[in-house]
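User: Hey, quick favor. My workstation is busy. Could you predict this chain's structure for me?
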Amino acid sequence: MRLRKPRIAPVDETDFTPELREILPSRPDGGRLLNIFTTLARYPKLLKRWLVFAGHVLGKSKLEPRARELLILRTGFLCRAEYEWAHHVVIARGVGFTEEEIRRVALGPEAPGWEPFDAMLLRAADELHDDQMITDGTWAGLSQKYGTEELMDVVFTVGEYTLVSMALNAFGVQPEEGLEGFPP
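Assistant: No problem, here it is.
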């Protein structure tokens, strides 16, 4: 179920306090800040601390962008977070995903066509979502390519985007104009 209007309204950027302007400076291109940020701006102290962790997961983790986006898209889909899905479809395209791969993420790790390691990443997202655990077999498969830090980043990426998906869904954060939702 997706809420069709916000439960927590975003803060209009013209109403930003000096504290919020420090936490969320204007975009260099002059565009509007995303609704996720202007909604979380209702709680500046939380926003400031969350941005540090979210920044690590999205931009500073040891995972290559393709792996990160597989995990994020699958988690957003499993959590039914259309806002998250829509934004990360754009990012996934930017790191080389095909339209077919994006559609296939919704079908999961057993869908035909995945490279074995991509399927392993999707399986890890499914297992974490379903059981809050990665099975020994999936862990062993990931460990053939990943060291400790990458393995930790897999778990924290799925965890971060589960948390974000819950917040987006519960707060009713609305997708920006022009973004597409889940595949049919």
